[in-house]
Amino acid sequence: MDRVAKTFVYGIIAGGSALLISAVLRFIAGGVFVPELASQTIFSLTPGQAESFSVETFGSLAKYSVFVVTVVFNLILYGGLAVLLRKIYERLADKGFILNLLQLSFIPYFFMVAITAILLRRNELLGKSSEIQFALIFLLLPHVVYGRILYSLLRRGVVKKATGYVDTEVHPTYQATGSQSPKISRRQFIIMAASAVVVAVIYFWARPLINSHPITNSTNPQPPVTPPLNVPAGSIFREPALAPFVSSEVTTNDKFYRIDTNIIVPSVDANSWKLNLSGLVQNGPLQFSYQELKSMPSVSEYATLECISDKITGNLISTAHWKGVTLKSILDKAQVKPEAIYIVFRCYDGYDVGIPIDRGLQDGTILAYEMNGVPLPAEHGFPLRAIVPGLYGMMNPKWITDIELVDTVYEGFWQRRGWDNDAEYKTHSKIVFPGDALAARFGQMEAPSMSTIVGNKSPIAGIAFAGDRGISNVEVSVDGGNTWQTASIKDPLSGNCWVLWALDWIPKNKGDYNIIVRATDKTGNIQTAEVTDVYPHGATGYHSAETTVL
Q1: What are the DSSP calls for 214-225, one per residue?
Q2: 244 and 206 belong to one structural domain
Q3: Which of 13, 80, 259, 283 has its CA at 20 to 30 Å from residue 228's CA atom?
Q4: Which residues pair with 288 in a beta bridge?
Q5: Phi, psi of 310 (to 5 degrees)
């Protein structure tokens, strides 16, 4: 391997160590992690149609793919910097350890500071979690580590204390001078760096403990609140084959879909968190603590959320039991002015979105702090998120910090990229089995009675959803849409939930079958068969599944 390639590899090794330290600081103290910032900046600059394609193609893996690319690019930058730094290092190799460490550390430090400044200017997702005011401090230690490791790698095998031998390829001036070993040993440096990290950990972990009543939030998956059975005897939903299906009517927290722009889940300290209410209000601005919200009269409801990027065959839909306070009760305290027409939510991660004020005043619109009987998991919005019946998931913001009343139609983060600002759920339906379209939410249905054999009862089942309009009828075709049969519908858990539907099917002939489903909502609107893309209004079309009868 030639000198340039070897130095490039040294830079990647040192850069990997710097990124590791930077990631640790990001997790424990909310510091700036450049690959994360770069990923968010890319999200900020990505047109809505391109984002739609990536989510439709890769799902939640889309943002992690971008993150991996930014990490790799960052490592390449560190490798390139090492090649440039070596030229300077060779000229200063006889000037002592301190001067060499400074140039190997601070040149890349200022380079990354410049990149960070550019990213910050272009990034719309700048929330409190970024700790922007500490950006320079958080970038310093990783680059001191980078410089120290690069220095060691460049000197590796060069100075032999016993003989004074020096490799002139790396240290051309050392052979003549017989320069001594650095005054600060590697062990001493590691101790100092470790001490700095420990101090940072203690400081930032100690901050939440200042309050006398610490609030914890578990992210461990919890079993859902058991829904009422509300299934009469003799119903198809009492059949043993459908038991796993019915028991998954409420999605467990660990299976609930998650789509947002964050690589690292925001971590919010509920002790210091406040909900700020401002804008066109008579009594304001107002501020509420986490405990004050929890002490207010609470409401509980089952509600389904679905991502506007959910394909007809997708699984970005889930149902949970939510507990919180009505948004209306909060707005009543502030006394909204008549000219206010939109409610704007701003979030800890920099996300923002607006909803019409009539949506916010509905009884079903709540600010939730519990999900399925436990505090909101961090990935689902702890300490507070909105549940807005009738509107796609992007209108149900997480990690809310501010609510503002305005007198104009507000376009949020995704709306500024072309997504629908009305964002009302489409009337649609999905087949859970046969097939695996919703396996991530319901799991594989396994029961002997479900085998597709001529003359055997083979249940077909799935979900239908129309937001707060509800579902009145579901029809199933087993012959590609030529004829239709009415399916049984289980009473929904609420008017804002999906419904479970099922059909007892006894195939009479062997062969391949094309099963199709369609739904009708309670306003009489029949699901459209027209196939449209998810961008910008949400997907439409019939869901189908293929099965073979033996």
Answers
A1: ------S--PPP
A2: no
A3: 259
A4: 275
A5: -70, 125
Per the structure, the complete domain to which residue 85 belongs is given by 3-210
The amino acid occupying position 345 is F
Sheet holding 428-433, edge to edge: 428-433, 460-465, 499-503, 488-489
Q: Report the alpha-carbon distance of residue 342 to residue 406 in Å, rounded.
A: 5
Q: Is residue 293 part of a domain?
A: yes
Measured from the Cβ of residue 376, the count of other Cβ atoms closer than 10 Å reads 27
State how far the Cα of 13 lies from the Cα of 19, in Å rounded to an integer. Answer: 10
* Torsion angles phi and psi, residue 352, rounded to 5: -145, 150
Peptide bond preceding 536: is omega within 30 degrees of 0, i.e. cis?
A: yes
The answer to whether 104 and 149 are in contact (CB under 8 A) is no
Query: Does 358 lie in the same domain as 270?
Result: yes
Q: Are residues 292 and 352 in the same domain?
A: yes
| Whether pLDDT at 441 is above 70 | yes
3-state secondary structure 492-524: CCCCCCCEEEEECCCCCCCEEEEEEEEEEECCC
Q: Report the candidate in 400, 396, 137, 135 with the shortest Cα–Cα distance to residue 268.
A: 400
Helix, strand, or coil here: 422?
A: coil
Q: Six-digit token pair at 183? A: 């005054």
pLDDT 10s digits, 198-225? 444 434 443 333 333 334 444 444 555 5
Q: Helix, strand or coil for residue 487? A: coil
Listing from the earlier edge strand, what are the strands of the sheet with 511-521?
A: 485-486, 471-477, 511-521, 543-549
Predicted confidence (pLDDT) per residue in 348-407, tens digit: 999 999 999 999 999 999 999 999 999 999 999 999 999 999 999 999 999 999 999 999
Which residues lie across from 275 on neighbouring strands? 288
pTM of the model: 0.82
CA distance 42 to 83: 27
